[in-house]
Amino acid sequence: MSDFLPPPGPPGAEAAPGASVPVIEERMHPLSPLVRLWIGVVALGWYVVTSFLQGDPLWEDVDKLEELLTSAPWWVYVAAAGVAVGLGFGYWSWWTNRFVIDDREFRLENTGAFQESQRIAFSRIQSVDVTQPFAARLLGLAQVQIDVGAEGGASLKYLKRARATEIRDYLMARAHGRTATTAEPGRGASAWDDSATGDHVLVRLTPGEIILSAFATLDMPLIALGFTLPWILGAVFDWSTLALGGGMVGLAFALFSYLSKRLFEQFNYTLARTPAGLRITRGLFTLRSQTIPTHRVQAVQTQQPLIWRWLGRARLDVTILGVGDEDSDELGTSLIYLPFGTPAQVQVALAALWPGLELDQLQFTRTPERARWLDPLQWEWQGYAADDRVLVGRSGWLHRRQFIVPHARLQSVTISQGPFERRLGLASVLTTTTDMFDANSVNHLGETHARALAFAEMDRARTSRVAELLDPPGLRDAVVEADPAGVVLAGAPDIWTPTTAPLPALLPAPVPTGSAPSTE
């Protein structure tokens, strides 16, 4: 990391006022074009190797190479031409692109046919992630993704893995306002989980836990039923194999997509606190190291399917400012914060985002009994809780959900009332953060109680934002440790137990016509 030190100038020389001091200027790794076209290169290499292994021609029969070329199918020539052209353009791009880091900003320079210069000030950097695609991982390379929020970012494809981690740590240090000149001793990142000396592991999931999380859902039985049902129907109604095959292809894609997202992408999961911030590392074939900007987390949702309730596990999803579902797919950013955790691990993960938050200490308020006409199965579980920091609401029956929104992240609070709710004297409170299309709702409260909650939340949001402006959130120093064995210890927080409190005595809710008086 000593390369980041500015080059020494002549004695007595000083930088001109307002001039930036170059720190480093580099190209990407020379093998980067091969990583971009690795599928084509592997396909051509496979054809040549299999042709020799089949004896036509033999390895020692060099004279028959001409016969191999003349007998090759047309698609081999097309693929070879495409790979050659792609490598040519790839090396031209590699030669004309470089990145520059000075004492003020990061720059990505293109000196090709169209000269471009992308500049990113250190203060605009939100997070820096390191991704190791499968082909790059085999060559010891990695990609650096610089995120600046909704305005896009920059990507360095590809650098040596050690160099990529140095660039990431340096940029994150400058983004946090710290002066960084040399790398910390012994912070060489591991090729398997991107861990380094000085990282504090908070939660680590074993491969068995990830496999269990993928198969212990109702999705897998439905996919299995989708595979077996066509064959049963085909045997009963004598359907053609072609019709069955078409359905099998779609189901195979669905199965691969599900396993890719739930198993391959979450494999080898680690949540750690590092000098650069909170970091998640995961991936079986493609290893992704994702920095979580805690100040941009807008909300967290806890999900617990039916089978997971029996296992005492849950999943945490996050809403991050400037990152939506489409953006996460494009940037390789996962919105799954904790894929499969015990109550103790969930508490650790939440405390890493918001130190001091203890959900088991919150007292939930349940919806009134007349809400069972609209929610006959979930009304006893449905409710909300609030303290001076967050609003928590829960819903669901077979698949239970619980959202957590800091008051300072609330953008708007809405009261809605449908015709059936109006008939029963109920109303729902919708809260939105920066993700306006994903509102969190506390459903079917008493009318007066819903109104009181809405006004109280607006007051809490205003107060929390003022407090945050006076004391901006920085890198949290609090460290909470989880049980390394993943065992729920005696007295561990159980955040899914429906601890409820009677509704506060505000004002009596309107009584529906023809109904008996309620003692809410």
Describe the structure concisely.
By secondary structure, this protein is an alpha+beta fold. It has helices spanning 32-36, 38-53, 65-71, 74-96, 134-138, 161-175, 207-215, 219-237, 241-264, 306-311, 325-331, 343-353, 419-424, 447-470; strands at residues 22-26, 97-102, 105-110, 116-121, 127-132, 141-147, 153-160, 200-204, 270-274, 277-282, 287-292, 297-304, 314-320, 336-341, 364-366, 383-386, 390-395, 400-406, 412-416, 426-432, 440-446, 500-501.
Any chance you could write out the topology, listing elements then pairs?
Elements: E1 22-26, H1 32-36, H2 38-53, H3 65-71, H4 74-96, E2 97-102, E3 105-110, E4 116-121, E5 127-132, H5 134-138, E6 141-147, E7 153-160, H6 161-175, E8 200-204, H7 207-215, H8 219-237, H9 241-264, E9 270-274, E10 277-282, E11 287-292, E12 297-304, H10 306-311, E13 314-320, H11 325-331, E14 336-341, H12 343-353, E15 364-366, E16 383-386, E17 390-395, E18 400-406, E19 412-416, H13 419-424, E20 426-432, E21 440-446, H14 447-470, E22 500-501
Parallel strand pairs: 15-22
Antiparallel strand pairs: 1-2, 2-3, 3-4, 5-6, 5-11, 6-7, 8-9, 9-10, 10-11, 12-13, 12-18, 13-14, 15-16, 16-17, 17-18, 19-20, 20-21
Helix pairs in contact: 2-4, 7-9, 8-9
Pfam family, one: bPH_2
Protein name: YdbS-like PH domain-containing protein
InterPro entries: UCP026631, YdbS-like_PH
